[in-house]
Structure formats: structure tokens, C-alpha cells
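Project outcomes to date are best conveyed with an example. Our students and postdoctoral researchers have been running inverse folding experiments weekly, and each run begins with a structure described purely in C-alpha cells. The record below, which covers 207 residues, was selected by the lab manager from last quarter's runs and is presented without edits.
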């Protein structure tokens, strides 16, 4: 019980300090804090990898973009879901995060993941390639959110879907209305919403 309360306390303190610092400058989740991401959130069901992946309705053979993949929490289960004929492109601005994802993929014998070290919004993604894209607790860390959403929009095939997940515990939390407004401005159409105002997944379609 004590260990649990101490962990919760540490998480709350880090979150508050980080949230305040992020108001001045967008700071990506440091690689040394990746364990926090890898906890797979014991507090809210919405942010759990299995729940997010289930909502994606992935078919074998699909191409999926994991934008801001971090330590591969979603990349690995998505790579399993698309199978050997599918592909996951894992993008992150930090090489340490990609390295961790590679290690996990190697241990899991997954060979259908491609890695790209890049900042979202810098136009590095191929157009019309993906059936699904994921941005899980990423958008608020990106300095130019509009450019990032525009890049993901063009990377999706027409009819492709972006899944955005946000939770209030994240220092860079983005509210639902903000995401709908920013995404709508680049052409996305709201398709589905799961969860509530403080912990949600929003599905956005490229028409
Ligand atoms: C809080 S972690 C979430 C990781 C993963 N999506 C998950 O939910 O497990 C946010 C990730 O976004 C990455 N990131 C931040 N800014 C980025 C940018 N401009 N372009 C690409 N990745 C970025 C960070 O390096 C970090 O790995």
C-alpha cells in the first residue's frame, strides 16, 4: 500500500512540475521517464493499449502509423494485430524511444515495424499510405500541432482514420474541443468518441 501511495505521489509531483514548465516551452517526455508511459496507466481504462487497439478495428495487412510512439507501448500490439502482411511505422523525435521500441520488437520476434526518427509536422511522412494513425498523449508535446495534424492527414489514405487519445494526468493534456477544432481545420471529420472529457479517445476520419 505504501509503495502504491508513494508511486502515486511521485507521479502527481512530476506531473504538476512538468505541466507548469510546459506552459513556457513544449518538452517531450524524457526517455528516462519512459517507465511512466510503460505503466500502461492503472488509473484509466481509456488509455490502456489493449482498449485503444480494440477500438481501432484493425484488419490483417493494414498499414498503421504510430505517431509519437514512445517506448512502443502501442507499436507492439498493433504490429501483432496487422500481422506479417501489414506494417507499422513508428515515428518519434527521440532516438532513445525508438531504441526501446526496437528492443521490444526484437524480443517479440516482430519484423513488420519500420522506424523513423522525425518531428511530426516536418513533412517526412509518405502521403496516402496509412489505414490508421495513432497519436496517444502526443499532440500537446508537439510545438506545431496544426502542422503535425496536417502531416498525419495527408499520410492517411482517404477513408483512413486517426485515433487521438488524451488523459488529464498527462502534463500536455489537450481537451476534446481543442483537438476537434485543430483537426477540423486541416480537414478531419469526427467519427467516434470514447470515454469522457478527462480521458478519451477520439476517432477522426480523412474524408
Ligand atoms: C507521453 S509519450 C507517449 C508515447 C506513446 N504514444 C504511448 O502512449 O505510449 C509522447 C511521445 O511523443 C514524442 N514526441 C514529442 N514531440 C514529438 C514530435 N514533435 N514529433 C514526434 N514525436 C514527438 C515523445 O518523444 C514521446 O516519446
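After processing, the design step wrote out the following sequence:
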Amino acid at each position: 500500500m505504501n509503495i502504491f501511495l508513494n508511486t502515486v505521489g511521485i507521479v502527481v509531483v512530476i506531473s504538476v512540475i512538468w505541466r507548469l514548465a510546459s506552459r513556457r516551452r513544449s518538452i517531450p517526455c524524457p526517455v528516462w521517464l519512459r517507465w511512466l508511459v510503460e505503466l500502461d496507466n492503472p488509473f484509466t481504462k481509456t488509455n490502456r493499449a489493449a482498449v485503444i487497439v480494440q477500438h481501432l478495428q484493425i484488419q490483417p495487412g493494414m498499414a498503421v502509423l504510430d505517431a509519437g510512439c514512445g517506448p512502443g507501448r502501442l507499436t507492439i500490439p498493433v504490429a501483432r494485430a496487422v500481422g506479417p502482411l501489414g506494417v507499422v511505422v513508428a515515428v518519434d523525435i527521440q532516438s532513445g524511444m525508438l531504441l526501446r521500441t526496437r528492443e521490444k520488437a526484437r524480443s517479440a520476434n516482430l519484423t513488420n515495424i519500420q522506424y523513423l526518427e522525425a518531428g511530426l509536422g516536418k513533412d517526412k511522412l509518405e502521403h496516402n499510405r496509412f489505414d490508421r494513425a495513432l497519436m496517444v498523449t502526443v499532440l500537446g508535446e508537439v510545438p506545431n500541432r496544426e502542422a503535425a495534424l496536417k502531416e498525419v492527414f495527408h499520410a492517411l489514405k482517404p477513408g483512413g482514420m486517426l485515433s487521438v487519445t488524451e488523459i488529464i494526468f498527462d502534463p500536455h493534456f489537450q481537451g476534446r474541443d481543442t483537438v476537434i477544432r485543430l483537426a477540423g481545420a486541416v480537414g478531419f471529420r469526427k467519427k467516434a468518441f470514447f470515454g469522457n472529457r478527462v480521458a478519451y479517445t477520439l476517432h477522426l476520419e480523412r474524408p
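Residues 28-29, 37, 68-70, 73-74, 91-94, 97, 119-120, 136-138, 141-142 surround S-adenosylmethionine (CB under 6 Å). The CA atoms of residues 20 and 171 lie 8 Å apart. The training component of this project remains on track.
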